[in-house]
Automatic annotation (TrEMBL):
Residues 8-23 have a biased composition (Polar residues). PROSITE patterns: AGC_KINASE_CTER, PROTEIN_KINASE_ATP, PROTEIN_KINASE_DOM, PROTEIN_KINASE_ST. Residues 63-80, 92-106 have a biased composition (Basic and acidic residues). Its EC number is 2.7.11.11. One of its GO terms (biological process) is anatomical structure morphogenesis. SUPFAM superfamilies: Protein kinase-like (PK-like). This is cAMP-dependent protein kinase. Keywords: ATP-binding, Kinase, Nucleotide-binding, Serine/threonine-protein kinase, Transferase.
Amino acid sequence: MHHPTFPTFRSTSLPNPTKQNRASPFDLQLKRDSGFQAGEGPITPPMSPGHSEEDDGSISVDTEPRYSGHRHEIPIDIDAKVYSTEAGPQGESRHRGSDERMDVDAVRPSSTSPRPPARHLEDEPTHVHKGSIKLTDFEVKGTLGTGTFGRVLLVRLRSSSSPSTPQNCFAMKVLRKTEIVRLRQVEHVNAERYILSRVRHPFIVDLHATFQDSLNIYMLLSYVPGGELFTHLRRAQRFTADVTRFYLATIILALKYLHSFNIIYRDLKPENLLLDSRGYLRLTDFGFAKIVDDRTWTLCGTPEYLAPEIIQSDGHGKAADWWACGILCYEMMVGYPPFFDETPYGIYEKILKGKIQWPKEMDRLSKELIKAFLHPDRSKRLGNLIGGAQDVLEHPWFRGVDWEALERREIRAPIIPHVTSLDDTRHFSRLPLPPVEEIPGLIREEQPPPLLQQFDPMAYQFLEF
């Protein structure tokens, strides 16, 4: 069957002035758009009539290239996700923008009344261990990925520390404190810790503990060994409706859970979905997640997945996550997203125009579901109607799905990753270990500073770690 040729870059960055080649989306040597040159400044998205030029025009987006393809392993985006799968030639990783004018979420008054959450996150118990384990209890086994201001390591809990623990392999996310401060990501990093420390769901990655030393903050996360859904999708080129239904259903259950706390995720894409050893998805990278009772105005995320209201700075909420579900559903079934271009600005224009090319082989019900998710009017968008997430569960496309059995993980997954042990890293990049001086707290216990030096302004910004 003949497929049209489209540019394959997921434009996860501001535009690069260098010329890029075009290729088929079905070429497995897929390259993501590369990052912009420092100092060129962010692109200004198309404005809505009510947009003010006084608003901060900075953009939080992922900015480095990602590669996927046969016999290539891709590193992860540390800042934008937990760790990587399949790596590119030089171990390139994608990360959020290096522009120092990183924006901070702003909440503005709205004409609509805020919706109270079904439950409050502050009422949930924290699942993060405090004081029971320390950094030196872990042995570094490998590097899973590297990013802008950190890396993710595979670590093993030493047997003498907790012999009764059934899981002793973890992903340790290491972030350099000076870079977090320089890029003005302190609020986002602290929000990620707060949210992950209290949420618990079978389709969301678990945060077990956090630490800090003189250089870094550390997040101890579940090690999910099956790799990114992005990698498996590129290998398969596209998924059938049944395979797509399985994965989309798990994502919908995760979003329904998050939305019950008024948490919006804002970074749904195949790269942020990891497969566990049984083939079930785990949602990762909560760097853009936020508790929003009404709306927020930050322009952040991956261009192909941005809802129109984000691009137009009209304020966005849970409806933006449901829009992203439509984009993801289309990408899984077709092999590439419905709106893409070689530059983010071109992507924004196509999103606002809303014209979708439908493959002839796509069935009517699948098309109706995607159209319902991609309704430009968020008040009419599936998932954001009066019935909320329940409307999605009851959509005819999901007829026959046993939602309770799925949440109990009683249904066999369509793809079972080949994993031989708890610390199997075949689905991740093989990168060298970091120099010991860059992870001092993992090597030896640091001595407390002299009394006059005990006030560390850098550590003060991460008191919860």
